[in-house]
Design goal:
The chain is of the alpha/beta class. The protein contains 17 helices and 26 strands. The protein binds adenosine monophosphate (AMP).
């Protein structure tokens, strides 16, 4: 099984259906399929690439991305989609780490890579004569592929250290698609999927179940709230993957409340915490059209999920608590909460989330040390802490490295962040630790104030915490900042915040 088989099937079924709309124009499924066959032919014959060779994709979201991805698969090769927002040096590192034999790149990225003057494989840039000659090569049909062959080397976002390449097989990706149909939505050629986040990451993974069913892909070069809201007004049955920060930005766009957003079918969000206060506002604006996913590149976004029904079940006694959870294990996925020795901790107790399913990566690319840590007896150790209630709902606490231990007590930043976000003056916040001579660590909160509110101050935030959480958990200091450092995927970089605290002069440390 090779994912590009299903593209061929769907292109025969709905050849004239719009497949990809982007700034580069519109491709029907027949045209998409033909481009894929030409690109695959070029990769095999012109570039002489043999099955298993890696081909990097360094493209902004554009009309060429998906044909390149499926062209690589059709040729029996492995795709290495790289986040194009990374610095050229970081991109070059990933290309080298993956030992890619060819790079398919947007023109600007091809130029930036060439300017580095480091050893790189051949680069074919979109829009050039070389690209056009790819599209003119002799087309080929799908090369028979073992379902356990490498399909996608998914480089983790690397919020700490160098990114690691999770090896995802065709079977892993197909399983993720089937779990989408089982838990999120059944889709077909009447559906529409918007990619407003990088296709090299979550947005690209969620494009797959839609392509395999012949849905219309709208590929946006970036995330512009007005453009996305317009799409909800113009198209029907629209689904979209959004990081929680993107959902919040859509909700905070003043136009959202008044516009006709009935075209939105499903907003899939996840990849970072979504706070209950923000989620409730979002449901108020768009309705219960949300599906929360919990996953990792290592188990492509498929470990647990909070379904649309769960978002709509307002009369349930545990509704609020469930909104704050990451839902139940996805269909076909096992999920457990264990202690350091792999023993189940029991209902309600906090431990590390581990998962086993056909979705779990084969391993990290050339990284035995990381593999020994992450994969044990087929279970993926996620590095996330959480607990599961009697009904199977899993509430994520934090990444184990973000947990704070103060005076011997475990403090989970997310709990404090949830409280701070209920303050009308707080737009965003992040809670981190700072070393403390007596307590081991102490809690410090970084806060971004809402522009349209009267501002925030440490006194009112402290009062709010005292009213809602145990005294020992409340922050010992507040830093009101203009914005929070974020990765290219919109994740808050807590490591950078901890570094900011380490650089502060001693007199700044007390508030
Ligand atoms: P990545 O592999 O870069 O997508 O990052 C995966 C990590 O994002 C997970 O290990 C979690 O720490 C975090 N994450 C994913 N989904 C959620 C979610 N629904 N809520 C909170 N954090 C999440």
């Amino acid at each position: 099984m090779n994912l590009s088989h299903s593209l061929a099937t769907v292109a025969r079924h709905v050849p004239n259906q719009r497949a990809i709309t982007s700034d580069d124009g519109v491709l029907t499924y027949a045209q998409f399929e033909l481009q894929v066959a030409h690109i695959a032919g070029a990769l095999r014959t012109r570039h002489g690439l043999a099955p298993g060779a890696r081909v990097a994709i360094v493209m902004d979201n554009c009309g060429a991305f998906l044909p390149a991805l499926f062209g690589i698969w059709r040729a029996g090769l492995t795709a290495v989609p790289v986040n194009s927002k990374l610095h050229a040096k970081e991109v070059a590192w990933i290309i080298g780490n993956a030992d890619a034999r060819l790079v398919l790149a947007s023109k600007a990225h091809a130029d930036a890579l060439t300017a580095l003057r480091v050893a790189l494989p051949e680069i074919v840039a979109t829009g050039t004569a070389n690209w056009l000659s790819l599209l003119a090569a002799e087309p080929i049909t799908t090369i028979p592929t073992d379902p356990d062959a490498e399909a996608w080397l998914f480089y983790t976002s690397g919020t700490t250290g160098r990114p690691k390449g999770a090896v995802l097989t065709h079977r892993n990706l197909l399983f993720a698609c089937h779990a989408y149909y089982a838990d999120v939505d059944f889709v077909d050629e009447r559906d529409c999927y918007v990619s407003a986040a990088p296709l090299s990451h979550g947005a690209g993974l969620y494009a797959l179940p839609h392509i395999l069913r012949g849905s219309h892909q709208i590929v946006l070069p970036g995330f512009d709230t007005g453009e996305v809201l317009d799409i909800f007004a113009r198209y029907r049955r629209v689904s979209m993957f959004a990081a929680p920060t993107m959902v919040t930005r859509l909700v905070n766009d003043g136009r959202a409340a008044d516009m006709d957003t009935s075209g939105l079918k499903t907003m899939i969000y996840g990849g970072a915490p979504m706070y209950v206060a923000d989620l409730k506002k979002a449901i108020g604006v768009f309705g219960p059209k949300f599906f929360q996913l919990y996953g990792q590149g290592e188990a492509p976004m498929t470990i647990s999920g909070l379904t649309k029904r769960m978002h709509a079940d307002v009369d349930h006694a545990s509704y609020e608590e469930r909104l704050g959870s990451a839902g139940i294990a996805r269909t076909g996925c096992a999920m457990r909460v264990v202690d350091g020795d792999g023993r189940d901790v029991g209902v309600g107790a906090i431990g590390e989330i581990i998962t086993k399913s056909c979705c779990v990566m084969r391993g990290y690319w050339n990284n035995d040390e990381a593999n020994a840590n992450a994969l044990r007896d087929g279970w993926l150790w996620t590095g996330d802490l959480g607990r599961v209630d009697a009904c199977g709902f899993m509430t994520l606490k934090d990444r184990s490295k973000d947990m704070i231990i103060s005076g011997g007590s475990n403090i989970y930043p997310r709990e404090i962040e949830e409280v701070l976000l209920t303050h009308p003056g707080v737009l965003e916040c992040a809670v981190v630790s700072r070393p403390h001579a007596d307590w081991g660590e102490e809690v410090i909160a970084f806060v971004v104030a809402r522009a349209d509110a009267g501002g925030v101050d440490g006194v009112s935030l402290d009062r709010l915490c005292l009213e809602n959480i145990a005294r020992f958990k409340r922050p010992k200091g507040y830093r009101v900042v203009a914005n929070l450092p974020k990765s290219n995927y919109g994740k808050i970089l807590k490591t950078e915040l901890r570094q900011i605290l380490m650089r502060e002069k001693p007199e700044q440390t007390e508030d």
